[in-house]
Protein backbone atom coordinates (compact mmCIF):
# COMPACT_ATOMS: atom_id res chain seq x y z
CA UNK A 1 0.00 0.00 0.00
CA UNK A 2 1.33 3.43 -0.94
CA UNK A 3 2.54 5.51 1.99
CA UNK A 4 0.92 8.84 2.80
CA UNK A 5 2.96 11.89 1.83
CA UNK A 6 3.04 15.45 3.09
CA UNK A 7 3.27 18.32 0.64
CA UNK A 8 6.91 19.17 0.06
CA UNK A 9 6.62 22.86 1.01
CA UNK A 10 4.85 21.96 4.26
CA UNK A 11 7.39 19.26 5.10
CA UNK A 12 10.37 21.57 4.68
CA UNK A 13 8.65 24.30 6.69
CA UNK A 14 7.85 22.01 9.61
CA UNK A 15 11.09 20.01 9.68
CA UNK A 16 14.81 20.63 9.35
CA UNK A 17 16.26 18.47 6.57
CA UNK A 18 19.58 16.64 7.01
CA UNK A 19 20.91 14.47 4.20
CA UNK A 20 24.10 12.76 3.14
CA UNK A 21 25.46 11.00 0.07
CA UNK A 22 27.71 7.99 -0.31
CA UNK A 23 28.92 8.17 -3.89
CA UNK A 24 30.53 5.15 -5.52
CA UNK A 25 32.81 6.01 -8.44
CA UNK A 26 34.10 3.13 -10.56
CA UNK A 27 37.71 3.75 -11.58
CA UNK A 28 38.81 3.40 -15.19
CA UNK A 29 41.78 1.15 -14.56
CA UNK A 30 42.61 -1.61 -17.01
CA UNK A 31 42.57 -4.29 -14.33
CA UNK A 32 40.79 -4.95 -11.06
CA UNK A 33 41.78 -3.60 -7.67
CA UNK A 34 43.58 -6.68 -6.34
CA UNK A 35 44.20 -8.90 -9.38
CA UNK A 36 45.15 -8.67 -13.09
CA UNK A 37 41.67 -9.56 -14.40
CA UNK A 38 40.80 -7.28 -17.34
CA UNK A 39 37.87 -4.86 -16.97
CA UNK A 40 35.45 -4.36 -19.87
CA UNK A 41 31.90 -3.04 -19.62
CA UNK A 42 29.34 -5.31 -21.26
CA UNK A 43 31.65 -8.33 -21.56
CA UNK A 44 30.35 -11.89 -21.59
CA UNK A 45 29.25 -12.82 -18.06
CA UNK A 46 31.85 -14.48 -15.83
CA UNK A 47 34.75 -14.12 -18.28
CA UNK A 48 36.77 -11.39 -16.49
CA UNK A 49 37.84 -13.48 -13.54
CA UNK A 50 40.87 -14.72 -11.63
CA UNK A 51 41.10 -16.82 -8.46
CA UNK A 52 41.45 -13.57 -6.48
CA UNK A 53 38.27 -11.97 -7.84
CA UNK A 54 36.43 -15.26 -7.19
CA UNK A 55 37.75 -15.40 -3.64
CA UNK A 56 39.21 -18.88 -4.06
CA UNK A 57 41.15 -20.30 -1.09
CA UNK A 58 44.85 -19.55 -1.18
CA UNK A 59 44.57 -16.61 -3.60
CA UNK A 60 46.26 -13.43 -2.41
CA UNK A 61 45.39 -9.83 -3.34
CA UNK A 62 47.98 -7.36 -4.68
CA UNK A 63 47.01 -3.66 -4.76
CA UNK A 64 46.60 -1.88 -8.09
CA UNK A 65 49.01 1.10 -7.92
CA UNK A 66 47.09 3.10 -10.53
CA UNK A 67 43.93 2.88 -8.42
CA UNK A 68 45.81 4.36 -5.46
CA UNK A 69 47.13 7.21 -7.61
CA UNK A 70 43.59 7.87 -8.87
CA UNK A 71 42.35 7.99 -5.29
CA UNK A 72 45.04 10.51 -4.33
CA UNK A 73 44.16 12.74 -7.29
CA UNK A 74 40.50 12.70 -6.33
CA UNK A 75 41.42 13.45 -2.73
CA UNK A 76 43.39 16.49 -3.87
CA UNK A 77 40.47 17.71 -6.01
CA UNK A 78 38.13 17.37 -3.00
CA UNK A 79 40.51 19.23 -0.65
CA UNK A 80 40.91 16.08 1.44
CA UNK A 81 43.69 15.34 3.88
CA UNK A 82 45.80 12.63 2.22
CA UNK A 83 46.78 10.29 5.03
CA UNK A 84 50.38 9.11 5.17
CA UNK A 85 49.26 5.68 6.33
CA UNK A 86 46.03 4.00 5.24
CA UNK A 87 44.77 0.48 5.69
CA UNK A 88 42.44 -1.98 4.00
CA UNK A 89 39.84 -3.76 6.11
CA UNK A 90 37.45 -6.63 5.61
CA UNK A 91 33.79 -5.63 5.69
CA UNK A 92 31.91 -8.84 6.38
CA UNK A 93 28.46 -9.52 4.96
CA UNK A 94 26.82 -12.12 2.76
CA UNK A 95 25.51 -11.18 -0.64
CA UNK A 96 25.29 -13.75 -3.48
CA UNK A 97 27.32 -11.42 -5.73
CA UNK A 98 30.16 -11.08 -3.20
CA UNK A 99 32.21 -14.27 -3.79
CA UNK A 100 34.48 -13.84 -0.73
CA UNK A 101 31.56 -13.07 1.62
CA UNK A 102 33.46 -9.93 2.60
CA UNK A 103 34.35 -6.71 0.82
CA UNK A 104 37.84 -5.27 0.94
CA UNK A 105 37.34 -1.65 1.89
CA UNK A 106 38.82 1.00 4.18
CA UNK A 107 37.33 1.85 7.54
CA UNK A 108 39.05 3.93 10.21
CA UNK A 109 42.24 4.53 8.19
CA UNK A 110 41.12 5.73 4.73
CA UNK A 111 43.45 7.08 2.07
CA UNK A 112 41.58 10.41 1.97
CA UNK A 113 40.30 12.03 5.13
CA UNK A 114 38.17 15.12 5.64
CA UNK A 115 37.63 17.56 2.78
CA UNK A 116 34.94 19.63 1.07
CA UNK A 117 33.46 20.54 -2.27
CA UNK A 118 31.94 23.90 -3.17
CA UNK A 119 29.05 23.44 -5.60
CA UNK A 120 27.34 26.12 -7.65
CA UNK A 121 23.54 26.11 -7.71
CA UNK A 122 21.31 27.23 -10.55
CA UNK A 123 21.03 30.80 -9.27
CA UNK A 124 24.78 31.13 -8.77
CA UNK A 125 24.72 30.42 -5.02
CA UNK A 126 27.78 28.52 -3.72
CA UNK A 127 27.06 25.77 -1.16
CA UNK A 128 29.88 23.96 0.62
CA UNK A 129 29.39 20.20 1.02
CA UNK A 130 31.55 18.74 3.82
CA UNK A 131 33.27 15.44 3.03
CA UNK A 132 34.11 12.89 5.70
CA UNK A 133 36.37 10.64 3.62
CA UNK A 134 36.99 9.23 0.15
CA UNK A 135 38.18 5.66 0.54
CA UNK A 136 39.17 2.83 -1.79
CA UNK A 137 37.25 -0.45 -2.03
CA UNK A 138 36.35 -3.16 -4.51
CA UNK A 139 32.96 -3.70 -6.08
CA UNK A 140 30.60 -6.66 -5.86
CA UNK A 141 29.28 -8.60 -8.83
CA UNK A 142 25.84 -8.21 -10.39
CA UNK A 143 22.62 -10.14 -9.77
CA UNK A 144 20.08 -10.54 -12.56
CA UNK A 145 16.65 -11.68 -11.41
CA UNK A 146 14.73 -13.68 -13.99
CA UNK A 147 10.96 -14.05 -14.15
CA UNK A 148 9.92 -11.11 -12.00
CA UNK A 149 8.58 -7.74 -13.04
CA UNK A 150 11.16 -5.18 -14.23
CA UNK A 151 14.05 -7.43 -13.21
CA UNK A 152 13.16 -7.30 -9.50
CA UNK A 153 13.66 -10.16 -7.10
CA UNK A 154 9.98 -10.18 -6.13
CA UNK A 155 8.29 -12.88 -8.14
CA UNK A 156 11.49 -14.00 -9.86
CA UNK A 157 11.92 -17.68 -10.75
CA UNK A 158 15.68 -17.62 -10.29
CA UNK A 159 18.67 -15.29 -10.19
CA UNK A 160 21.87 -15.23 -12.20
CA UNK A 161 25.17 -13.91 -10.88
CA UNK A 162 27.82 -12.24 -13.04
CA UNK A 163 31.16 -11.86 -11.22
CA UNK A 164 32.80 -9.72 -13.91
CA UNK A 165 32.29 -6.58 -11.81
CA UNK A 166 33.51 -8.27 -8.61
CA UNK A 167 36.84 -6.69 -7.69
CA UNK A 168 36.50 -3.59 -9.90
CA UNK A 169 38.12 -0.64 -8.05
CA UNK A 170 35.83 1.98 -6.53
CA UNK A 171 36.25 5.15 -4.58
CA UNK A 172 33.45 5.78 -2.12
CA UNK A 173 33.03 9.47 -1.32
CA UNK A 174 31.15 9.88 1.95
CA UNK A 175 29.80 13.29 2.90
CA UNK A 176 29.30 14.41 6.44
CA UNK A 177 25.66 15.10 7.38
CA UNK A 178 24.69 18.04 5.19
CA UNK A 179 22.82 20.65 7.20
CA UNK A 180 21.26 23.98 6.34
CA UNK A 181 19.99 22.94 2.90
CA UNK A 182 16.30 23.38 3.70
CA UNK A 183 13.99 23.01 0.72
CA UNK A 184 17.00 23.16 -1.63
CA UNK A 185 18.32 19.78 -0.47
CA UNK A 186 17.42 17.96 -3.73
CA UNK A 187 18.96 20.73 -5.84
CA UNK A 188 22.14 20.72 -3.76
CA UNK A 189 22.40 16.93 -4.02
CA UNK A 190 22.01 17.06 -7.80
CA UNK A 191 24.57 19.86 -8.15
CA UNK A 192 27.02 17.97 -5.92
CA UNK A 193 26.70 14.75 -7.91
CA UNK A 194 27.17 16.59 -11.21
CA UNK A 195 30.24 18.31 -9.77
CA UNK A 196 31.70 14.94 -8.72
CA UNK A 197 30.99 13.60 -12.22
CA UNK A 198 32.74 16.58 -13.81
CA UNK A 199 35.76 16.28 -11.51
CA UNK A 200 36.39 12.55 -12.05
CA UNK A 201 36.03 13.00 -15.80
CA UNK A 202 38.44 15.94 -15.75
CA UNK A 203 40.90 13.82 -13.79
CA UNK A 204 40.49 10.99 -16.31
CA UNK A 205 39.89 8.46 -13.56
CA UNK A 206 36.34 7.40 -14.42
CA UNK A 207 33.80 7.63 -17.23
CA UNK A 208 31.22 8.36 -14.50
CA UNK A 209 28.33 7.20 -16.67
CA UNK A 210 25.49 6.55 -14.29
CA UNK A 211 23.57 4.50 -16.86
CA UNK A 212 26.54 2.08 -16.98
CA UNK A 213 26.83 1.91 -13.21
CA UNK A 214 30.18 3.77 -13.24
CA UNK A 215 28.73 6.13 -10.67
CA UNK A 216 25.88 5.67 -8.22
CA UNK A 217 24.90 6.92 -4.80
CA UNK A 218 23.32 5.82 -1.55
CA UNK A 219 21.06 8.62 -0.33
CA UNK A 220 20.59 9.23 3.41
CA UNK A 221 17.75 11.45 4.64
CA UNK A 222 16.54 12.35 8.12
CA UNK A 223 14.29 15.03 9.61
CA UNK A 224 14.25 16.86 12.91
CA UNK A 225 12.09 19.64 14.35
CA UNK A 226 14.86 22.26 14.49
CA UNK A 227 18.60 22.58 13.79
CA UNK A 228 19.23 22.52 17.54
CA UNK A 229 17.75 19.03 17.92
CA UNK A 230 19.76 15.78 17.58
CA UNK A 231 19.75 14.12 14.16
CA UNK A 232 16.62 12.14 13.37
CA UNK A 233 16.57 8.49 12.35
CA UNK A 234 17.77 8.21 8.77
CA UNK A 235 16.76 6.08 5.85
CA UNK A 236 19.34 5.00 3.27
CA UNK A 237 18.14 4.56 -0.29
CA UNK A 238 20.66 2.33 -2.04
CA UNK A 239 22.27 2.49 -5.46
CA UNK A 240 20.38 5.37 -7.08
CA UNK A 241 21.87 5.71 -10.55
CA UNK A 242 20.60 8.96 -12.05
CA UNK A 243 20.85 12.61 -11.07
CA UNK A 244 17.10 13.03 -11.33
CA UNK A 245 16.57 9.86 -9.29
CA UNK A 246 18.77 11.22 -6.49
CA UNK A 247 16.84 14.50 -6.43
CA UNK A 248 13.48 12.70 -6.51
CA UNK A 249 14.57 10.27 -3.79
CA UNK A 250 15.32 13.13 -1.41
CA UNK A 251 12.03 14.86 -2.21
CA UNK A 252 10.06 11.65 -1.66
CA UNK A 253 11.82 10.72 1.57
CA UNK A 254 11.26 14.20 3.01
CA UNK A 255 7.55 13.98 2.23
CA UNK A 256 7.25 10.37 3.46
CA UNK A 257 9.12 10.89 6.71
CA UNK A 258 7.32 14.15 7.48
CA UNK A 259 3.95 12.43 7.07
CA UNK A 260 5.00 9.58 9.37
CA UNK A 261 6.34 11.92 12.02
CA UNK A 262 3.18 14.02 11.93
CA UNK A 263 1.13 10.85 12.38
CA UNK A 264 3.23 9.85 15.40
CA UNK A 265 4.81 6.92 13.57
CA UNK A 266 8.40 5.73 13.88
CA UNK A 267 11.05 6.24 11.20
CA UNK A 268 12.92 2.98 10.74
CA UNK A 269 16.68 2.96 10.23
CA UNK A 270 16.52 0.89 7.09
CA UNK A 271 17.77 0.55 3.55
CA UNK A 272 15.30 1.49 0.85
CA UNK A 273 15.20 1.23 -2.93
CA UNK A 274 14.17 3.86 -5.48
CA UNK A 275 11.58 2.72 -8.02
CA UNK A 276 11.85 4.89 -11.12
CA UNK A 277 8.54 3.66 -12.53
CA UNK A 278 6.43 4.60 -9.50
CA UNK A 279 8.69 7.48 -8.36
CA UNK A 280 8.68 6.05 -4.84
CA UNK A 281 11.06 4.38 -2.40
CA UNK A 282 10.33 0.97 -0.91
CA UNK A 283 11.62 -0.51 2.33
CA UNK A 284 14.35 -3.14 2.29
CA UNK A 285 16.24 -4.50 5.29
CA UNK A 286 16.90 -2.85 8.63
CA UNK A 287 20.11 -0.84 8.28
CA UNK A 288 23.23 -2.34 9.80
CA UNK A 289 25.62 -0.31 11.91
CA UNK A 290 29.38 -0.43 11.41
CA UNK A 291 29.74 -2.94 14.25
CA UNK A 292 27.54 -5.41 12.39
CA UNK A 293 30.08 -5.59 9.56
CA UNK A 294 32.83 -6.76 11.97
CA UNK A 295 35.52 -4.64 10.31
CA UNK A 296 39.08 -5.77 10.93
CA UNK A 297 42.39 -5.10 9.10
CA UNK A 298 42.87 -7.36 6.10
CA UNK A 299 45.77 -9.64 7.04
CA UNK A 300 46.70 -10.22 3.38
CA UNK A 301 47.39 -6.54 2.64
CA UNK A 302 50.05 -4.30 4.16
CA UNK A 303 49.29 -0.69 5.04
CA UNK A 304 49.68 1.90 2.29
CA UNK A 305 52.45 4.43 2.90
CA UNK A 306 51.90 7.59 0.86
CA UNK A 307 54.86 9.94 1.05
CA UNK A 308 54.87 13.70 0.61
CA UNK A 309 57.01 13.23 -2.48
CA UNK A 310 54.38 10.95 -4.04
CA UNK A 311 51.63 13.46 -3.29
CA UNK A 312 53.68 16.19 -4.95
CA UNK A 313 54.06 14.02 -8.06
CA UNK A 314 50.29 13.58 -8.16
CA UNK A 315 49.77 17.34 -7.75
CA UNK A 316 52.03 17.96 -10.73
CA UNK A 317 49.76 15.73 -12.85
CA UNK A 318 46.51 17.47 -11.87
CA UNK A 319 44.60 18.88 -14.87
CA UNK A 320 42.46 21.99 -15.05
CA UNK A 321 39.53 21.62 -12.65
CA UNK A 322 35.92 22.02 -13.84
CA UNK A 323 35.26 25.45 -12.32
CA UNK A 324 38.49 26.89 -13.79
CA UNK A 325 37.62 25.29 -17.12
CA UNK A 326 34.11 26.77 -17.10
CA UNK A 327 35.48 30.25 -16.46
CA UNK A 328 38.02 29.87 -19.28
CA UNK A 329 35.44 28.59 -21.77
CA UNK A 330 32.97 31.30 -20.79
CA UNK A 331 35.58 33.92 -21.69
CA UNK A 332 36.65 32.15 -24.90
CA UNK A 333 33.07 31.74 -26.10
CA UNK A 334 31.96 35.22 -25.07
CA UNK A 335 29.00 33.90 -23.06
CA UNK A 336 27.49 35.92 -20.23
CA UNK A 337 26.69 34.45 -16.79
CA UNK A 338 23.13 33.49 -17.70
CA UNK A 339 24.17 31.83 -20.97
CA UNK A 340 26.89 29.81 -19.22
CA UNK A 341 24.52 28.78 -16.45
CA UNK A 342 22.02 27.58 -19.07
CA UNK A 343 24.77 25.49 -20.67
CA UNK A 344 25.75 23.94 -17.34
CA UNK A 345 22.15 23.31 -16.27
CA UNK A 346 21.52 21.58 -19.61
CA UNK A 347 24.60 19.39 -19.00
CA UNK A 348 25.87 20.53 -22.40
CA UNK A 349 29.33 21.94 -21.59
CA UNK A 350 31.32 18.97 -22.90
CA UNK A 351 29.11 18.64 -25.96
CA UNK A 352 29.47 22.32 -26.88
CA UNK A 353 33.24 22.24 -26.32
CA UNK A 354 33.55 19.18 -28.57
CA UNK A 355 31.30 20.78 -31.18
CA UNK A 356 33.43 23.94 -31.23
CA UNK A 357 36.56 21.76 -31.52
CA UNK A 358 34.93 20.10 -34.56
CA UNK A 359 34.64 23.46 -36.32
CA UNK A 360 31.40 25.08 -35.15
CA UNK A 361 31.06 28.53 -33.66
CA UNK A 362 30.26 28.60 -29.95
CA UNK A 363 26.99 30.42 -30.63
CA UNK A 364 25.98 27.86 -33.26
CA UNK A 365 26.83 24.93 -30.99
CA UNK A 366 24.84 26.45 -28.12
CA UNK A 367 21.87 27.12 -30.42
CA UNK A 368 21.61 23.45 -31.36
CA UNK A 369 22.34 21.76 -28.04
CA UNK A 370 20.15 24.08 -25.98
CA UNK A 371 17.48 24.43 -28.66
CA UNK A 372 16.26 21.72 -31.01
CA UNK A 373 18.32 18.92 -29.48
CA UNK A 374 17.42 19.79 -25.90
CA UNK A 375 13.71 19.83 -26.77
CA UNK A 376 14.00 16.49 -28.53
CA UNK A 377 15.90 14.95 -25.61
CA UNK A 378 13.24 16.16 -23.17
CA UNK A 379 10.46 14.71 -25.32
CA UNK A 380 12.24 11.35 -25.42
CA UNK A 381 13.17 11.44 -21.74
CA UNK A 382 16.86 11.10 -22.56
CA UNK A 383 20.07 12.89 -21.70
CA UNK A 384 21.55 14.95 -24.54
CA UNK A 385 24.45 12.56 -25.01
CA UNK A 386 22.00 9.65 -25.38
CA UNK A 387 20.16 11.29 -28.28
CA UNK A 388 22.32 9.72 -30.98
CA UNK A 389 23.66 13.04 -32.29
CA UNK A 390 27.40 13.67 -32.01
CA UNK A 391 29.28 16.97 -31.76
CA UNK A 392 30.69 16.20 -35.22
CA UNK A 393 27.12 15.96 -36.56
CA UNK A 394 26.22 19.37 -35.16
CA UNK A 395 29.41 20.95 -36.50
CA UNK A 396 28.75 19.41 -39.92
CA UNK A 397 25.22 20.88 -40.05
CA UNK A 398 26.58 24.26 -39.00
CA UNK A 399 29.13 24.10 -41.83
CA UNK A 400 26.36 23.29 -44.32
CA UNK A 401 24.43 26.34 -43.11
CA UNK A 402 27.42 28.68 -43.24
CA UNK A 403 28.32 27.48 -46.75
CA UNK A 404 24.80 28.24 -47.94
CA UNK A 405 24.04 24.61 -48.74
CA UNK A 406 21.24 24.53 -46.12
CA UNK A 407 18.95 27.11 -44.61
CA UNK A 408 17.59 26.89 -41.05
CA UNK A 409 14.49 24.94 -42.03
CA UNK A 410 16.41 22.37 -44.06
CA UNK A 411 19.00 22.13 -41.29
CA UNK A 412 16.26 21.26 -38.77
CA UNK A 413 14.88 18.63 -41.14
CA UNK A 414 18.37 17.23 -41.60
CA UNK A 415 18.95 17.04 -37.86
CA UNK A 416 15.59 15.32 -37.35
CA UNK A 417 16.67 12.63 -39.81
CA UNK A 418 20.02 12.24 -38.01
CA UNK A 419 18.15 11.77 -34.71
CA UNK A 420 15.94 9.20 -36.42
CA UNK A 421 19.06 7.19 -37.29
CA UNK A 422 19.18 7.87 -41.02
CA UNK A 423 22.90 8.55 -41.03
CA UNK A 424 25.33 11.45 -40.96
CA UNK A 425 24.16 14.92 -42.06
CA UNK A 426 25.79 14.79 -45.50
CA UNK A 427 24.23 11.33 -46.08
CA UNK A 428 20.80 12.65 -45.07
CA UNK A 429 21.15 15.73 -47.30
CA UNK A 430 22.08 13.57 -50.26
CA UNK A 431 19.36 10.98 -49.65
CA UNK A 432 16.57 13.56 -49.32
CA UNK A 433 17.90 16.04 -51.86
CA UNK A 434 17.98 18.83 -49.31
CA UNK A 435 19.54 21.94 -50.82
CA UNK A 436 18.94 25.66 -50.95
CA UNK A 437 17.67 26.80 -54.35
CA UNK A 438 20.60 28.42 -56.14
CA UNK A 439 18.90 28.68 -59.55
CA UNK A 440 18.08 32.40 -59.66
CA UNK A 441 15.70 31.92 -62.59
CA UNK A 442 13.59 29.27 -60.85
CA UNK A 443 13.63 31.14 -57.57
CA UNK A 444 12.75 34.44 -59.25
CA UNK A 445 9.78 32.80 -60.98
CA UNK A 446 8.53 31.38 -57.69
CA UNK A 447 8.86 34.78 -56.01
CA UNK A 448 6.93 36.43 -58.86
CA UNK A 449 4.15 33.85 -58.50
CA UNK A 450 3.95 34.54 -54.75
CA UNK A 451 3.79 38.30 -55.40
CA UNK A 452 1.11 37.87 -58.08
CA UNK A 453 -0.97 35.82 -55.63
CA UNK A 454 -0.69 38.51 -52.93
CA UNK A 455 -1.19 41.94 -54.57
CA UNK A 456 -2.35 43.57 -51.31
CA UNK A 457 0.90 42.60 -49.60
CA UNK A 458 2.94 43.82 -52.55
CA UNK A 459 1.15 47.17 -52.33
CA UNK A 460 2.11 47.51 -48.67
CA UNK A 461 5.72 46.66 -49.48
CA UNK A 462 5.76 49.24 -52.26
CA UNK A 463 4.47 51.86 -49.80
CA UNK A 464 7.47 51.20 -47.57
CA UNK A 465 5.80 48.90 -45.03
CA UNK A 466 8.20 45.95 -44.79
CA UNK A 467 6.34 44.05 -42.05
CA UNK A 468 4.37 41.81 -44.48
CA UNK A 469 7.60 40.60 -46.15
CA UNK A 470 7.32 37.42 -44.10
CA UNK A 471 4.11 36.46 -45.88
CA UNK A 472 5.86 36.48 -49.27
CA UNK A 473 8.84 34.56 -47.87
CA UNK A 474 6.46 32.03 -46.30
CA UNK A 475 4.63 31.52 -49.59
CA UNK A 476 7.90 30.94 -51.41
CA UNK A 477 9.07 28.52 -48.71
CA UNK A 478 5.89 26.50 -49.04
CA UNK A 479 6.19 26.42 -52.80
CA UNK A 480 9.84 25.28 -52.64
CA UNK A 481 9.32 22.90 -49.70
CA UNK A 482 11.64 24.98 -47.56
CA UNK A 483 14.51 24.99 -50.05
CA UNK A 484 14.55 28.72 -50.77
CA UNK A 485 16.98 31.04 -49.04
CA UNK A 486 15.07 33.74 -47.13
CA UNK A 487 17.74 36.37 -47.76
CA UNK A 488 17.73 35.65 -51.48
CA UNK A 489 13.91 35.85 -51.56
CA UNK A 490 14.00 39.22 -49.77
CA UNK A 491 16.59 40.53 -52.21
CA UNK A 492 14.52 39.51 -55.25
CA UNK A 493 11.33 41.03 -53.79
CA UNK A 494 13.14 44.33 -53.08
CA UNK A 495 14.48 44.42 -56.63
CA UNK A 496 11.03 43.84 -58.06
CA UNK A 497 9.20 46.47 -55.99
CA UNK A 498 11.86 49.04 -56.80
CA UNK A 499 11.97 48.10 -60.48
Automatic annotation (TrEMBL):
Keywords for this protein: ATP-binding, Ligase, Nucleotide-binding, Protein biosynthesis, Transferase
NCBIfam families xrefs: gatB, PRK05477.1-2, PRK05477.1-3, PRK05477.1-4
Q: How does it assemble?
A: Heterotrimer of A, B and C subunits.
Q: Which PROSITE patterns match?
A: GATB
GO BP: any one term: glutaminyl-tRNAGln biosynthesis via transamidation
Q: What is this protein called?
A: Aspartyl/glutamyl-tRNA(Asn/Gln) amidotransferase subunit B
Q: Which residues form a coiled coil?
A: none
Annotated catalysed reactions: L-aspartyl-tRNA(Asn) + L-glutamine + ATP + H2O = L-asparaginyl-tRNA(Asn) + L-glutamate + ADP + phosphate + 2 H(+); L-glutamyl-tRNA(Gln) + L-glutamine + ATP + H2O = L-glutaminyl-tRNA(Gln) + L-glutamate + ADP + phosphate + H(+)
Instruction: Please verify whether the record's keywords include Transferase.
Output: yes
Residues in Asn/Gln amidotransferase domain copies: 350-497
Amino acid sequence: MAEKLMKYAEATQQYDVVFGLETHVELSTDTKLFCPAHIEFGGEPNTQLTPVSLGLPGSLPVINEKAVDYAIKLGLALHCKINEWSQFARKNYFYPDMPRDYQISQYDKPTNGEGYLDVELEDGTIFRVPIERAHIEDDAGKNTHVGGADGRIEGADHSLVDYNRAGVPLIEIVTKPIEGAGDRAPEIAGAYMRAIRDIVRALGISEARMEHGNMRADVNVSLRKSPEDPFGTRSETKNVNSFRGIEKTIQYEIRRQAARLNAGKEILQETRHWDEASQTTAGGRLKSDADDYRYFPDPDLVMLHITDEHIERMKAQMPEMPRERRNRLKAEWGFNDIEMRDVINADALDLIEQTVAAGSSAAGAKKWWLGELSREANEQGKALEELGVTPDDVAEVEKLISSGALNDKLAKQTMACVIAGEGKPEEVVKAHGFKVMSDDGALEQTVQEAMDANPDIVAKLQSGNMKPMGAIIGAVMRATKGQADAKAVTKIVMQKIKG
